[in-house]
Fold each of these.
Amino acid sequence: MPSNQLKAQYRYGFHDSAAPLYQIKPGLSERVVEEISSIKNEPAWMREFRLRALKVFESKPMPPWGGDLSNINFNNITYYARATDKQSRTWDDVPAEIKNTFDRLGVPEAERKMFAGVGAQYDSDVIYHNVRKDLEKQGVIFCDTDTAVREYPDLVKKYFGTVVPVGDNKFAALNTACWSGGSFIYVPKGVKVAMPLQAYFRINSKNFGQFERTLIIADEGSDLHYIEGCTAPVYSTDSLHAAVVEIIVHKNAHVRYTTIQNWSNNVYNLVTKRARAEEGAYVEWIDGNLGSKLTMKYPSVFMFGRGARADVLSVALAGPGQHQDAGAKVVHLAPDTVSSIVSKSVSFGGGRTSYRGLAKVIKGAERSRIKTQCDALILDPQSRSDTYPTMAIEEENVRVEHEATVSRIGDKEIFYLQSRGLKPVEATSMIVAGFFEPLAKVLPIDYAIELNRLIEMEMEGSVG
Amino acid sequence: MQKSFLAIKNLAVTVEGKAVVRDFSLSVEKGSIHALMGPNGSGKSSLAYAVMGHPAYAVTRGKIIFEGKDLAKLKPEERARKGIFLSFQEPPEVGGVALGTYLRSIAKKQWSLPDVDVLKDAAGRRAQVRESSLAMRTIKEFAPSLGIAETFFDRALNEGFSGGEKKKSEILQMLALKPKLAIIDEIDSGLDFDSLKAITAALKKAVKDGMGLILISHYTRIFKSLKPKYVHVLRDGELIKEGGAALLKKLDKGGYRDI
């Protein structure tokens, strides 16, 4: 039975031995939060914001739903580690060992080929940032969020924490208390950024907590595509990634946010991603979840303005020892709003996928339309897939569709494909790649090729 | 003596210890049609699975020789790459991959040259691309005669297909792979008249181009247009009668009981 022997392979599991210049001792307290704030030389309002968030974090219980969080020990985690004392604008200025890591991840090469701007975060800090001059001239701001607090305090103060409030959930509160790094983007009125902006997040340290904070503001009629990738080394102990992403999409603007997450199997990935869509705005979340030990992530769109639109494509691959609890939330708060959620998940080798989603329409959001499609593929009897859709429809004049399919690939199907000349591993990769085609289709070509390669690698080792 | 390219010699097959084929021999020449007939459960499909190398169908005695090579040690995919094709009586549904994408993949794979690094060898690569795109063209040209719309190719392989659509999918896959030997199991069930006619024509052409064809059926109807040179009748896993086209007439009249 070939599919039983599937085991995951991970090629980004290396770590470099660059010693952090500075790191705060493991454990979380007011002192730790104050120290993070003072290292960053922050204004008082941000420090107070952090301390308030810490109280919320401490008062909130762990979520009783989702995945198994019982093994997270908040006292063992390092909450801040600085690898270099400056941020570079050219890769040559990045310390050699760290640069080597990003070279191995292909980040500088990708930048040359297809991006208008790139940020690279290594543990707590963004160590590299560059954006094309022509975009800067048009008023596009793309920097790390720490820099934004210093240089664009008005914008940050106006929007920070408005989409994901401090008290939203335990891990968003943790992020708000300890945040470091992340991307800040402002696209002025009517500016259309033709090439995507990219950020790459890398954890290098052991038992580490990465808490980047991303804030994106797309002003009226603007257009932006933002892509992020994530990897981490393989360690025998666990790391925590708890990011918060807030996006404000003004009237008639469009933002596409693409994530290809490929964490190693020892990372808890607990992320809050949410967008606010004003009148006629259009938000797309493209969320590719490969890797990690446990992911709990439900990109959300709150449609505040009439005619706002949201598309979420959530894709998850769960192998041995992995649980992908992913999905989406769409909240219709205005008339004529339209949303679609497509969820595709594959589980193999004892892995588990769950779709968790919320579709909400408030009274008065007339003529809203929601379409949800969940497809799960289960490659062997040891693996599992569940669906937890929640509907809260308060308006009568709406159209709501929900479809779900579960396909299983067993010995019969594998033999059939073998009889057409495919090795079992080729058959499985082909099915999985085909299943993920909707994701590959919306990615830049290099990303799509990389995705197929990742899938094949995850499936390797299947032939005994 | 004409050189046979498939030779099954004194074959015995068991499934979970139960004998399903006993002492069966058959030899197939290029470009010839063989009818493999028999009542339900007589071992026809088991024989087909054994030739394809299904792991649950254990060959306990005898040999299957294809183009002079004993197939015993070859995996199903290696047999397929050598040019053997089995059209399933009940093809499984495969979620995920779209039929069109799938057909292109298997065609490409089949025509990649195993001993050449295709990326380095321009000639090898060209052959692969040429052969697979020729196969895809054949499929595209053939599809309308099966009453297939373009959207058919966007659907997941066999998923939610009707019985007839699954048979059409099998034939399209055969066209993608251009096998040297095809074993076609019960293609005539669930198909409308026009589609059956188109499939018959496609099989006829393949045979004319040199393909060996073993047609499995328990009805004689399909053999009216695809005239077999040899007819083999199985019962309880054993060959009980062999003959030419005249045997079909006899079966038509008296069924399997009279033999």
Amino acid sequence: MKFVRLAAVLIGMVVPLAAMAHGPTRQKITLTAEVAAPPEEVWSAIGDFQDMGWHPAVYSTEGEGGNEIDATRVLTLGEEGGPTISEILYKYSDEKMSYSYRITDVLVEVLPVTNYSSHLTVIPVDGGGSVVEWRGAFYRGYPNNDPPPELNDEAAIAAVSAVYQAGLDALVERFAGN
Amino acid sequence: MLWWNGLRAIDTALAVMFLSLAAGPTVAGDIAFVTNQNSSDVSILDLETGVERQRVAVPGKPAAIAVHPASGVFYTVGPDTKTVSKFDQASGEVLDDLVLDGGPLGIAVAPDGSMIFVSDWYNARIWGVNTDGMEVVRTLETGSAPAGLVVAEDGSWLASADRDADQVSVFDLATFKLRHSVPVGVRPFGISVGPDGFVYTTDVGSNSVTKVDPVLGEVTGTAEVGERPYGIAFAGGKGFVTNQYSDTVSVINLDAMTEQVTIDVGEYPEGIDVTGDGGTVIVANWFSNTVSLIDAGGLDVIGEIATGDGPRAFGKFVAPDVGG
């Protein structure tokens, strides 16, 4: 199986490097979606760092520290025993309805990025609805020159964009008809 | 299942960019040359009027920049195409370029303008390039992943922040020999020389600034700063440090090596430099697509100017206005 084979090859090589080196150009994306619900309601759905169950790709969330700075969580994707992403919270504001987190550990086959940080914010709009804004900053998964196509800048942008879009689509759907 | 597998990819060109306009800063006669990495260009900003005078295309997604006011030029490094480009400050026209191999990243100019130095992130070395003809004439070995570079004001030494070696390399520029390898904080990235002649590094991995005596090759102090310090500049006898993850600038007392105050700026603040009169500190906000102008006396933000996409301005990027 591709995932297992790749993991075996890369685990010794990429993981120690991931925290240190990175490609030459940091990437950033911002995705937004209008959600037909009051901001407080949307924030109560997504504002708990310890529960990312609102995202369709997340099977379970386990963590420590609640919504305090330096709280951690491990997301299990897809199914029990699925791939995981470890994250740490570094900003949290109920008042601004926003939190910021970083990935501390992920295999590049799961998400082809390094040095990843992200902000999730609910913005009130006139008329009582909300906009959810999801922003990310990251380097590609391959830290050295001449990346393979699955670990280049475009692959990193495409993967993170798809994650955000899926999450936002799920929120739009969840609150549709409000 | 993979995190993104089967999910719809979207066109990131649609990503929303927020541009906010200058709030009437008053800075006499200086220009900022801000590298915009994501839009691969340089914003030439009139700091007096708060207006972007010109946008100059640059090959290779530039981050690093070095101005040399005496010769009226600025240099950029585009890592994606491995290109060092030389521009006329007044016209913004390309004068010359040089394509390197490896991973060109940081850049500094010798005070007399005769040479530039470019760090090679992937191959632990610095290229010495003659600016007349843009030819590599020297190669200096550093520790792993050299990033920021700085040259002494009198041109006597060159220092590099060797990020993955957790050290500073100091080279004698008369002989081009390694003078010192000095262990500093964890993963130093930015480097600059203070008004006291000491070298200061921003240590990304330990959220610190390390002060190094470049002559003796010794660490003489360490200050704690915010999350992910990136660059450091000096004004009014103080150090100003951009903290990428904190969205702040730390102001540090250079004698005590303590953080005095933090100033909120835009998101992902990176490159930082000072106007010629020492009155205003300019900060490039990578995520916000702006520069923040900080009053070095009052220690507060007095203006903001919109830039291109992804301003980094890694190096010396402010110069006196020579017209244009």
Amino acid sequence: MNRSSRPLQRGNGPGRGKGLSRGAGSDTVAAYLFIAPAIIGFTVFVGYPLIRSFYLALTKYNGLADPVFVGLGNFRRLFGGDPAFWPALRATGYLVVLYVPLSLILGLALAMFCNQRFRGVRIVRTLAYLPVVLPAVATITLWKFILNPEVGLLNTVLDRLGLPTSLWLQSPSMSMPSVVLMMLWGVGGTMIIFLAALQSVPTELYEAAKVDGAGPWSAFIRITLPTISPIILLQVILQTTAALQTFNQPKILTNGGPGFSTNVLMLSIYNNGFPNLGRIPQLGYASAQVWVLFIVIIAVIALAAKFTSLWTYSDNTPD
Amino acid sequence: MKTKLIGATLACAGLLTACGGSDSGASDGPVTVTVMTWESTQTNAVIKKALAEFKDDNIKVELLDTPSGQYGDKLSSLTQAKKLPDLFWCGNDTEQQYTQQGLLVDWSSKLKDSSDFGADKFVPSAIANWTTADGQMGGLPSLMNTYGVWYNADAFTAAGVTIPKAGWTWDDMYGAAAKLTGKNGAKYGLVADQLTGPDGPFTMSMYSVSAGGAPFTDDVNHPTKAEADAKYTEGVQKLTDAVKSGSVAPPGYDASNAQSLFAAGKVPMMFGGQWLAAGFQVDKPKVKYGFVPFPQVTTPATLYDSVGICTPQYTKNQDSTFKVLQYLNTKVWDAVLPESPVAPPAYTPAQASYFDALTKAEQTTVVDTVKADLAAEKTVGVRFTTQWAQQVGDLTTAEYQPIISGKKPITNLPAYVEKINGLIKSGG
């Protein structure tokens, strides 16, 4: 007798099967009703735009006239003729390489500091997280003033201290580090997740290590890091995805300049799809760029997950 | 159930219709003509007051309450939704591009039919540039933008440099910039975003044209070629040298604060438009300043640019809309410009109010320079108005600006021009 025949047999019983069958049916309907908003939302706001954007990527479309099918023409222009595309990819890669490790290291360091017991720790945690809840556009604009090379606060302070100043956002070599510096202002978001992870590490592990004579560094390397490694993996994926989609900071701080030094892919897509007044949108071309970014994100996340899982700690012990 | 569904559909349709700016009202009442500007709240209030004086029992004018920020995004969205108002502020490039797409009403025949509002009453270069290759006019120019060099007279005097005046040369300008650099907290002697930014190659045409050479392109609206002749290359070399010496702000310099830095005495000389005069009139910089025409090599040459008002093709009452358009161009500026003299009207009989306001405010150098610019025989367009103009901007960032910065040799200039010619040929 196989398992699937059991319910049928039960259903043959007097008065039971019929009721159960009706109950199961209404449960199924209820289940579909409950997930319907999510399915409808996904279809309307993700599925359809995804399919539509793929179609538009194969067309020349300016939003004013009907799309004209050009096959892979947009992709040929992307990889062969557009002087802004490869610099945009390079700028995006540079931002990821600078921002992701720094945000993880600083976030973890801040979390370790805030995980200690000392007077005023709650205030420190609040202050560290405060930039995350402040309006992004306001803080970015403030940073733009701080980094102004002529009248900005940072150069004024450096100058008073007799230290070398910089052009910051107006220097092709310093513009991206300046953007990343500003982005690290919001490292409290990374910190708060690390802090939650640190507080879930069993204290008896540290106590046992202390008894065995382990110092703080050994405890960090051999207990803390392995235990929170799943959270580190999560953070790597979250931060990489966020970095690949960076938009606000370069848009407000530099608008992609000087040259193409901070013209990240998201900004390039925006400028092609929604150009300045007087320019015609290139929505088909921007859609092609969107698909390149989409594929890059999927590839990077898959690689990150693949390689990070090799050293990620997982508790496989049976309960 | 069916009745409810139909009712709901009608209600939704009614809401959507109400959102549209170009609805023209009931068929038996006065028609409504909607107007959208990119002006500030204060200027819009003055325009609204002036529009209230428009008397026609069959026409009601409604100025849409739209914040001035992100006008480009707004225009783009309304265009795609086919909800553009009957009259909207537009640039020459928008007018050219939209007309080519068949999106705008062609007013050329209306101008031909009118004696007091004919083409001869407008600044000739504006009419020429607002006409498409096939003779259409998808909008009418409303205000002229003239350009020149703003200078801090106090800084010039303190540095012992002669105050610039019409007829000064490019060498005079770069020489002054070198002497002013580093004085009184000025990092650069000259900030010239129009020369070093994305429109730089077009602005540089002033040098070659003034020297008797060829402009960067034969026509910004309908180009057939781009070129960099010997005179043009000479102009680029001089700019590159000035940037290298540190006296001119390099490409990438954030010019968005240049106006306030100029007012604070930190920028002694900058390229800019006449519209800054209106701001200076309110903010009153502490330094003594002036406005002078662009330098020349042998003959005067300047930039051409103007803005205007366009009407979408689907506007229902074109005759009523044209009456309001005519009122805007002939009467409204008389009310707006005395309070905020931003630009001279393209309709020449309306220019008196602009110049009177500036004269009253003792902005005599601005009056002289604007008049000289409007009368200039040699003008060059500020940028391409074509649909592929965005691609030219990217090429300029990749190829032209590195030449100005000294990162690429000037011998790369022909290769850059060749790529622009490729775009012209392929049409983007």
Amino acid sequence: MSGLSVGMFLFLVSVGMSLIFGVTRIVNLAHGSFYMVGAYLMVTLVEVLPDRPWAFWLALVAAPLGVAVLGGAIEVGLLRLIYHRDPLMQLILTFGLILVISTLVLLVWGPDNKSVSRPDALAGSVLIFGQRFPSYYLLVLGLAPVVAVGLWLIFYRTRWGMLIRAATVDREMLGALGVNVAALYTQVFAFGSWLAGLGGALAAPTVAVALGMDGDVLTTAFVVVVIGGLGSFAGSFISALLVGLLQSFGILVFPAVSIVLLFAIMAVVLIVRPWGLLGRPEE
Amino acid sequence: MTASARALGLLAVVLALAPLALPPFFLQLLTEIAIVGLFATAFNLLMGFGGMVSFGHAAYFALGAYAAALLVKRAGVPMLLALPAAPLAAAAGALLFGFFIVRLTHTYFAMLSLAFAQIVFTVIFKWKSLTGGDDGLLDVWPPAMLKSPAAYYYFTLATVALSLFVLHSVSESPFGYALRSVRENPRRARFIGINVRRLQLLAFVISGAFSGLAGGLFAFYNGSVFPDFAYFTKSFEPLVVALLGGAQSFFGPLAGAFGFKILEWLVSRQWPVYWPLFLGTIVVLVIVALPQGFVGLAGGQGWRTRLIRKS
Amino acid sequence: MRARIRDAICGAGVMLVVTAAGGPVAAQTKAPIRIGEINSYSGLGTVYTFPYREGLLMAAKEINDAGGVLGRPIEFIFRDDKLKPDEAVKAARELVGQEKVDFLAGCISSGVGLAISAYAKEAKVLYIATHCQTSRLTWDDGHKYVAHTTNNVNQYVRALAKKAATMPYKKWAHISPDYEYGHNVWDEFSAYLKQLKPDVEVVQQNWPKLGETDHSSYVTALLQSGADAFLSSVWGAQEIAFVKQARPFGLFEKVHYFSASVGNPDELDPLGKEAPVGAITPGFAWYDDGMQKRHPKLAEWVKKYEARAKKEPTLGASWGYASAYIIAEAIKRAKSADTDKVITAFSEGFEMEFPWGKVIMRGCDQQAIPPQWIGVVRMNTKGKPVLADVEEVHGKDVIKSCDEVAKLRAAAAEKKK
């Protein structure tokens, strides 16, 4: 049960990274930084909003939007300038962003650890099959499938989703057909950032909001995305569940090797199927 | 060519005379610059000449550093015999990992190299009885005759110069040109009879070996080795350094190492909090505005190679 | 919130000026005694090092305002170690070689402390370790060029184990991060507890990786372990995450929670109303009535610190403060800033009174022995978590003896061969 919720959570934080890669071919290393900013915004919003039950939910909606704006601005201001270059240059640029964002967070929010309290309704636990289970995780368990289904609906039932899918297959053709690819990229990047921010805002009540949370989540999200297949959102879903279960049970069964195991699996997947479990091979 | 040969000669004289004029700390800084320069040049053999960007070169740096340090600490081997083990161990690691890595291209190449490096890091971190775990291995000093800053400076300078000579010969050899052709167009290279994978693997092993040598030199310079050496942030060091200096030129990474280390020293001693911000901003600016690195800015043109292509 | 942002930026700005000026402005005209201070002044470690530095600079200012040491002002030259031992060694070299400092000080990460110590031994410079806590510094890997001015793991963990031994728990479990510090804490705790109470039994062990963010499977394991009590040595952000995740499972009601660090404000404050009430843990509870009664000067010190730092003090702040005074005292006793003479002063040992009690600098290992406080986490009337019912044990009553330290050093030397 807890493995499942960890997996669902991993899906939420990693699917944005996968989506961004699928469309723009950028491996966004700053994804963890966006996650961190989402969590810090959550802290600030909960602090400034009146102490009412709805404040938490309002913050949960608003914080990711702030991150989406940040992501969109970075795409327009920086990444757009270098799409014609080697994709690895974009990756290195996002590495630079990690350093910039982490320092800015330190300057704005200060060095102290912070946290957000769970809303009272979700602070306790419920009994499921005779086992205690934290109610807050139910929120994650519920929200992740909603996001997954929402993404599926967007991809397969809207024109925007169709364009996104088309962009993952052949961007140049899409541009030639008169679609504003640049705007599409910005929207996708902002959307992916929104997902990272949502992950951070959702995580804020269960972890410490602290410097360094960017790196913690980056490595795991990275492994999830690579195993599932860069750009494949169904792949991210399955791989997030796999990694979540592995993390929950692996540490109990073979604690000494569990971290090595994660990267070893990632290496094996890359060797056997570089495009991941459900990704598409590159031309 | 004669102009650059003269410049090189002048540089050699300046560097050789440096200990007469510079206080010990600056010799140590120069020693470190030479080591980082070697690491970045070895890395750039792959990136600049082979078009292969590794995100896991810290692994080979660390393998070299740990191989040398372990031989000295655990087997009592003298430093001068332990140091050659650094490139050998790193080359072995590069051969093993590279065999799989060179099968992939672009982003996937980078990802797999990163995955292997994280495995190396975790093993070093966890295998406490051998590697000392988190606390690393301390007291890995060179023998008495190399202990003074000037002596170790000369030793490093000679080793690095020799390595750069070898690397330069490699990059200007038929092998080096075959590597460039693979970078520009792997398919055409295959058509003219180049065994692309074997070529790339060889380049990977050479690059890994010299990264390992840099690691070994650093171990004795620093007097200690730590798991950090294999961490992924360390893998970005040669990358950033090469980009700063200019990945298109053989000597770019060396210039980058000089600029990077001096900047780091100046900025982070005064404004430690702002150093990551500063570095990150520079990385972003160089990528967006200075694709040729600072060497390119200084008007260095006519490099035979181009890394950044329109995709 | 706006004010908070401004404070943070101003704080950074002030720090910049202080560093640029090379420490507190010297009132005296005599050449200052220069101490190179290496610590983690960027990134993750700043939550601990910023208050620590406030304490250090506060003491330095007091010392200099009172005429300095041997008529000379003391001056700290700060360098960032980026939390990396190799960066720390580099900074040490620069400080010694270029800045010509008289002594080295600092460290927050144990790895950094041990690396600077190894360098100091090689370079024959006295290194005064301040904020890091590993016992290896002055024991297994101790030598005459290192002194340690603050608590080490052995003392506060033993104090905690001593408290644990008075309670009726027989079956124990633990959760510790899987690296040097985590193993160190658990080894010390379990060994001392067994020594005091031979019938205790370890029923289950958990070793999450350092920086693990999800602890639910460990929480489940602890719940099923059948233990009466457990020790946690996860710390900082990781412990906050652990507590938040364990709470809804009711872990703290079922198994009594002992923690090496949850009583510190960097963990208690963010936990807020989710703090683990009832947890037994060490901590610097300057606000506790009992503490203030035992140490009448404490309240005044706190006021002075708050006036300066605009923040409540932390254990780290007291360590910074004490470290500057201990260094100054050793120089005073040596009647010189000469390395060998100051080492002699340290090796002869001395005692100092601080607003929070007596700190013994023991000669045989040049290790500080401060008072230890163990309390219980409670909610105060304002709904803020605090450490209450604080009991004081002096470190001298629990710390390993000089003979034991000599044995440790001999064993370590044997191992090196």
